[in-house]
Design brief:
This protein is α+β, with helices and mostly antiparallel strands and 161 residues long. Helix content is 29%, strand content 29%.
């Protein structure tokens, strides 16, 4: 078995995608911030001490998608042409979904995962004064399209948003 991010001497390197043809690609990731009832109530009522948690978290996630290559040393710098982050307050916390799109030489799975992760971190940062026990859970890719490997949907995630 060979590893694409290791050279012949076993050293990490960035994969050369120069010769690849740009194609339209998208990826969607999801995650969850588990919160206590007091945090959920404050989110629903808009009474969190630091302000509009969902707006701040959404912008943080979009910015994170565009900054992925500065955070992950072997990720390629790509044109992020779409980045959307949706948050939904539910009974036990906040559901997060991010979709990222590009027309480039490599996929945007890492950008979608980074968007969800940083969105979740922003939620935690905004509510930690109310409840220090909030937990980030189940960050995962749920779908991707385009590229050489084609389309993929995580089993059990079809049609969910």
């Amino acid at each position: 078995m060979s590893f694409t991010h290791l050279d012949s001497a076993g050293r990490a390197h960035m994969v050369d995608v120069t010769a690849k043809t740009p194609t339209v690609r998208t990826a969607t990731a999801r995650g969850f911030v588990r919160c206590g009832a007091d945090v959920v109530a404050a989110l629903r009522d808009g009474t969190t001490p630091k302000g509009d948690v969902l707006a701040v978290a959404r912008i943080a996630g979009i910015q994170a998608a565009k900054s992925t290559a500065t955070l992950l040393p072997l990720a390629h710098v790509i044109g992020v042409h779409r980045a959307s982050v949706e948050l939904d307050i539910v009974d036990h916390g906040v559901e997060i979904e991010a979709t990222v799109g590009t027309a480039d030489r490599t996929g945007v799975e890492m950008e979608a995962l980074t968007a969800v992760s940083v969105t979740a971190l922003a939620v935690v940062d905004m509510v930690k004064g109310i409840d220090k026990s909030v937990v980030i859970e189940n960050v995962r890719i749920v779908a991707k399209s385009g590229g050489r490997s084609g389309d993929w949907v995580r089993p059990g995630e079809e049609g969910q948003s």
